C-alpha cells in the first residue's frame, strides 16, 4: 500500500539527517517555539482593523495623494443625510421634531449640519413651530430651487445634510454612534414622522467595518471542522493536539508579521489567516497520512524520517507554489489585495518552517500512533484506488472532452462572446457589498431616486492669491455650476456661488445671480468679507488666500463607466465655461474625492485578475520545471485547477454573481491552493512510473496521495465555505465559489486527469485484453 522505508543499513541523505536531528531533539524544538509564541501573540494583538472603502486605495496613488491634499485645505468631511419622512413635512409638529433632531445632531462635536430649516431659522432670526411660521417656511423653500436641488426638500420629506469630520474608521464609528445617541428617541418613538433614515457613505463604511469584525466566527467553525475530521481520520487525541498546536503557531507567527509591519486588516483580510490555516492543515494531512502508513517491521522513528523525507519535496513545492501565487497579487494597485498577497506569502514561509520542525517534534513527543496502532475497520479508499485507473481508461474520451467543453464555456462566461455575450460585469458600488436585507440597504435603494444622489465628487479649483473673489471669476463659476446642474449625470452641484446666492435670498434679494456689474462687484466684496466668518463658506473657499475653491458634485453615479463619463462631462463644461468667461483660465481644475477613487479601484480589478493570474501561472509552471522532469507532467499538472476556475465562472453567470473586490481573487486563490493536489499527484505518479506501467503508477498515486488529496480538499472546502456565513455578499460569494472550485478541482484530479494521462501515454490497463477480450 505504501513504499517501504529505506533499509536500516543505508546511508542517510542530508534531508534524512536533518529530520533525524529534529526528531532526536524534539523537546528542544518545542521549547524554541514555546519561547517564540508569547512575543508572536503580543504582535498579533497589535494588528488593527479598518474595513472602510477608502482603505482599498494605495496611499502612493497620485489621485489618493491629491485627495488628501484637498482635504488639508477644505477638511476631510464625509457627506451623509438624515431623511425625515412625513405625510405633510410642513406641519408644525413635524417641523418641531425635525428642528429638535437637527439641534441635537449639531451639538455633536465634529459634525456640521445644514438644512432648509436651519437656513430659514437664520433668515428669520429664529423659528418656532407655529402654524404661521410653518406656512412661512413652506413658502420660503418653495419660492426657490436652491433647497430642492440639494436634496434638502422633496415630496414627503425634509433632509438634514451632515458633514462628518473623520480621519479614520475609529473616529467615524464614534461620531456616528454619538449621532445615533443624540437621536435615539426618534427610533423608538418617531411620531409625527413616519421614519428617520440614515443615508450616505459614512454609514456604509461603518456597516462594513462592524460586520467584518465578526470574522473570528469563521475560524471557530474551521477549528471545529478540523477537530471532527482529525478524530474521524486518525482517531487519536494526541494527533489532534499535534495538529492544533502546529496550526496555532503558524497562525500566530503569520499574524505577528502583520503586527510588526504595522499592517491593518481590511474587508478582504479574513482570507489571509484562513489561507494560512487551510494550507497548513492540508500539508499536515499529506505528511501525517504518509506517516500513518507504517509497514510492519519498521520502527516508528525510522518510518517517520522516511515519511518526512518522502513528502518534503512535494509539500515544499506545493507550499511555495501557493506562496508565489499569492505573492503575485503584490502587483495589484488595490492596497488590501496587494497586502493580502504579501502577508499570505510570508505566512506560508513561516508555515513551511513550522510544519517541518514543530510538527515532527510534536509527533515524537506525543507518540502519535500509526495505522498499526489504530487500524481502520474498513478501508473503502483502497478499493476506490484500485478501481479508478481502469474506470478512467474506459471513459477517458468522454471525460476529457467534457472537461474541455466546460472549460471553453467557462472562458466565454468570463470574457464574453463578441456579438453574443458581454464580458462579466465588475461590481464596484460599495452599497452592493452590504447584505440586501438590512434596513440601511433598503433605505438607500428606496430613497435614493428621490434625492440628487449620495455619490460625492469634488471639483478642486486652484489659482493665485485672491483669484476666487474676482467678479468675473465668480460669474464664470456660477455659469459652470449651472451647466453642471443641467447635465443628466449630475443631481446637484454646490459651490461658493450657491452660498452667495443663499445669502442674497435670505436678505430678500432673490436667489438669482446678479446681472448688473455693480452688483457683481458688491457680491465679490461680500465674499471677501464673509470668507473668514461665514461657516457655510468654509467648506467651499480657502478663506486664508481666496486662491482655492471647490464645487461638490452630487450624483447617482456608482460604477466606473459612470464616473469616467461624469469626469469627462465636468471637464467639458469647464472648457465651455472658460470659453465664455476667460477669467476662469486663472484656475486649474482637478477632480478629487473618495467616489472617483473607488471608480479607479474598480478599474484596477481586471488588471489585478489578469496580471496576477498570469504571473501565478508563470511562477507555478517554473516551479514545475524544477520539480518534474517529465514535460507533459509540467503542463498537465495545471489542468484540474484551470478547469475548476473556468467552470466556476459558469456558476457565477448562472447565479447572477459579478466580479468584485473579493471574487476577483478567486482565480489566483484557487490556482495557488489547489495546485498542492496536482503536485502531490504527479510527484507520486512519476515516482512509480520510472519502473511501472501507467496503471501501476496511477494505483500507486491514488493509494499514497489520493486519500490525502481527498481530505485536504475537504479541508480547503470547509475552510473557505465558512465564509458562506458572512453577512457581506462579496465575502459570502467568495466562500461559496471557492468551495465549489476546490471540489471541481478534486473531481478533475480523480477523473479528467488520469483519463488525459491514458490518452497522452497511449497506454492501456494491465491485462486489459484478457479482461475485455481485446487484443493488446
Using the alpha-carbon principal axes, give the shape.
elongated
**How can the largest sheet be summarized?**
5 strands, antiparallel
- Which residues form runs of ≥5 with pLDDT under 50? 1-8, 772-776
The share of residues in helices is 55-70%
Looking at CATH, the homologous superfamily of the largest domain is Multidrug efflux transporter AcrB transmembrane domain
Strand content: 5-15%
Q: Please tell me how large the radius of gyration is.
A: 33 Å
What's the architecture of the largest domain in CATH terms? Up-down Bundle
Explain what the structure shows.
With 776 residues, this protein is an alpha+beta fold. The protein has 3 domains: 14-45 and 214-425 and 604-772, Multidrug efflux transporter AcrB transmembrane domain (Multidrug efflux transporter AcrB transmembrane fold, Up-down Bundle); 76-211, Alpha-Beta Plaits, CATH 3.30.70; 441-597, no CATH class. It is 63% helix and 8% strand. The strands form 3 sheets. Strands 2, 3, 4, 5 and 6 form a 5-stranded antiparallel sheet that branches. Residues 1-8 and 772-776 have low confidence and may be disordered.
Ordered list of secondary-structure elements with their pairings:
Layout: H1 14-24, H2 26-45, E1 48-49, H3 62-74, E2 77-85, H4 92-106, E3 111-114, H5 116-123, H6 131-142, H7 146-149, E4 153-154, E5 157-165, H8 169-182, H9 184-188, E6 195-200, H10 201-212, H11 216-234, H12 237-260, E7 264-265, H13 271-292, H14 300-327, H15 335-355, H16 358-366, H17 380-394, H18 396-415, H19 439-447, E8 455-462, H20 471-485, E9 490-494, H21 496-506, H22 517-530, H23 535-538, E10 548-555, H24 560-580, E11 588-592, H25 594-603, H26 605-627, H27 631-636, H28 639-655, H29 666-689, H30 694-721, H31 729-750, H32 752-761, H33 768-772
Helix pairs in contact: 1-14, 1-16, 2-12, 2-16, 8-10, 11-12, 11-30, 12-13, 12-15, 12-16, 13-14, 13-15, 13-30, 14-15, 14-26, 14-29, 17-30, 17-32, 18-28, 18-32, 20-22, 20-24, 24-25, 26-29, 28-29, 28-31, 29-30, 29-31, 30-31
Amino acid at each position: 500500500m505504501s513504499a517501504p522505508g529505506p533499509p536500516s543499513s543505508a546511508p542517510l541523505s542530508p534531508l534524512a539527517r536533518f529530520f533525524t536531528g529534529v526528531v532526536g531533539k524534539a523537546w528542544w524544538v518545542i521549547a524554541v517555539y514555546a519561547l517564540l509564541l508569547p512575543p508572536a501573540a503580543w504582535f498579533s494583538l497589535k494588528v488593527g482593523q479598518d474595513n472602510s472603502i477608502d482603505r482599498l486605495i494605495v496611499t502612493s496613488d497620485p489621485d489618493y495623494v491629491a485627495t488628501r491634499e484637498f482635504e488639508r485645505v477644505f477638511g476631510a468631511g464625509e457627506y451623509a443625510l438624515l431623511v425625515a419622512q412625513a405625510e405633510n413635512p410642513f406641519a408644525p409638529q413635524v417641523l418641531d421634531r425635525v428642528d429638535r433632531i437637527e439641534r441635537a445632531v449639531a451639538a455633536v462635536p465634529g459634525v456640521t449640519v445644514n438644512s432648509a430649516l436651519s437656513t430659514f431659522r437664520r433668515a428669520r432670526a429664529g423659528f418656532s413651530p407655529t402654524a404661521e411660521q410653518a406656512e412661512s417656511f413652506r413658502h420660503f423653500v418653495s419660492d426657490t430651487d436652491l433647497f430642492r436641488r440639494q436634496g434638502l426638500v422633496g415630496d414627503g420629506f425634509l433632509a438634514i445634510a451632515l458633514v462628518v469630520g473623520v480621519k479614520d474608521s475609529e473616529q467615524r464609528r464614534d461620531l456616528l454612534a454619538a449621532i445615533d445617541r443624540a437621536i435615539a428617541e426618534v427610533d423608538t418613538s418617531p411620531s409625527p414622522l413616519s421614519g428617520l433614515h440614515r443615508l450616505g457613505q459614512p454609514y456604509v463604511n461603518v456597516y462594513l467595518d462592524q460586520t467584518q469584525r465578526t470574522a473570528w466566527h469563521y475560524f471557530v467553525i474551521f477549528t471545529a471542522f478540523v477537530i471532527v475530521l482529525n478524530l474521524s481520520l486518525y482517531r487519536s487525541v494526541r494527533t489532534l493536539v499535534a495538529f492544533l498546536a502546529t496550526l496555532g503557531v503558524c497562525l500566530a507567527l503569520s499574524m505577528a508579521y502583520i503586527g510588526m509591519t504595522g499592517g491593518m486588516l481590511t474587508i478582504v483580510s479574513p482570507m489571509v489567516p484562513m489561507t494560512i490555516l487551510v494550507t497548513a492543515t492540508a500539508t499536515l494531512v499529506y505528511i501525517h497520512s504518509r506517516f500513518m502508513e507504517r509497514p510492519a517491521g519498521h520502527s516508528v522513528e525510522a518510518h517517520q524520517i522516511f515519511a518526512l523525507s518522502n513528502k518534503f519535496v512535494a509539500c515544499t513545492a506545493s507550499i511555495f507554489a501557493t506562496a508565489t501565487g499569492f505573492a503575485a497579487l503584490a502587483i495589484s494597485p488595490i492596497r488590501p489585495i496587494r497586502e493580502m498577497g504579501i502577508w499570505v506569502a510570508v505566512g506560508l514561509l513561516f508555515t513551511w518552517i513550522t510544519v517541518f520542525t514543530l510538527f515532527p517534534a510534536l509527533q515524537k513527543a506525543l507518540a502519535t500512533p500509526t495505522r498499526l496502532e489504530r487500524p481502520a475497520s474498513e478501508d473503502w479508499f483502497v478499493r476506490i484506488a484500485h478501481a479508478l485507473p481502469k474506470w478512467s481508461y474506459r471513459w477517458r474520451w468522454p471525460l476529457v472532452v467534457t472537461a474541455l467543453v466546460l472549460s471553453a464555456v467557462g472562458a466565454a462566461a468570463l470574457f464574453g462572446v463578441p456579438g453574443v455575450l458581454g464580458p462579466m460585469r465588475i461590481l464596484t458600488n460599495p452599497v452592493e457589498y452590504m447584505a440586501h436585507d438590512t434596513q440601511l440597504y433598503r433605505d438607500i435603494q428606496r430613497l435614493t431616486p428621490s434625492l440628487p444622489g449620495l455619490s460625492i465628487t469634488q471639483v478642486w479649483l486652484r489659482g493665485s492669491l485672491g483669484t476666487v473673489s474676482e467678479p468675473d471669476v465668480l460669474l464664470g463659476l456660477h455659469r459652470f455650476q449651472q451647466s453642471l446642474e443641467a447635465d443628466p449625470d449630475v443631481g446637484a452641484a454646490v459651490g461658493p456661488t450657491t452660498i452667495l446666492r443663499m445669502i442674497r435670498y435670505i436678505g430678500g434679494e432673490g436667489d438669482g445671480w446678479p446681472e448688473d456689474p455693480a452688483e457683481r462687484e458688491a457680491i465679490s466684496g461680500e465674499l471677501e468679507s464673509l470668507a473668514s466668518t461665514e461657516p457655510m463658506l468654509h467648506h467651499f473657499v480657502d478663506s486664508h488666500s481666496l486662491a482655492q475653491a471647490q464645487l461638490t458634485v452630487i450624483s447617482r453615479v456608482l460604477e466606473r463607466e459612470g464616473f469616467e463619463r461624469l469626469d469627462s462631462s465636468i471637464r467639458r463644461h469647464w472648457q465651455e465655461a472658460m470659453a465664455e468667461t476667460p477669467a476662469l483660465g486663472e484656475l486649474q481644475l482637478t477632480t478629487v474625492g473618495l467616489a472617483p477613487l473607488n471608480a479607479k479601484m474598480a478599474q484596477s480589478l481586471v488588471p489585478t485578475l489578469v496580471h496576477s493570474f498570469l504571473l501565478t501561472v508563470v511562477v507555478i509552471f517554473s516551479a514545475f520545471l524544477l520539480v518534474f522532469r517529465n514535460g507533459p507532467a509540467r503542463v498537465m499538472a495545471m489542468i484540474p485547477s484551470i478547469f475548476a476556475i473556468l467552470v466556476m465562472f459558469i456558476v457565477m453567470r448562472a447565479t447572477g454573481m459579478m466580479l468584485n473586490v473579493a471574487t476577483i481573487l478567486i482565480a489566483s486563490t484557487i490556482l495557488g491552493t489547489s495546485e498542492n493536489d496536482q503536485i502531490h499527484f504527479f510527484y507520486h505518479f512519476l515516482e512509480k512510473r520510472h519502473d511501472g506501467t501507467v496503471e501501476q503508477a496511477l494505483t500507486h498515486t491514488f493509494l499514497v496521495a489520493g486519500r490525502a488529496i481527498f481530505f485536504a480538499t475537504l479541508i480547503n472546502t470547509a475552510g473557505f465555505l465558512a465564509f458562506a456565513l458572512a453577512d457581506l455578499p462579496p465575502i459570502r460569494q467568495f466562500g461559496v465559489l471557492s468551495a465549489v472550485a476546490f471540489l471541481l478541482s478534486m473531481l478533475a484530479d480523480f477523473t479528467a486527469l488520469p483519463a488525459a494521462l491514458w490518452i497522452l501515454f497511449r497506454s492501456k490497463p494491465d491485462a486489459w485484453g484478457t479482461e475485455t477480450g481485446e487484443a493488446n
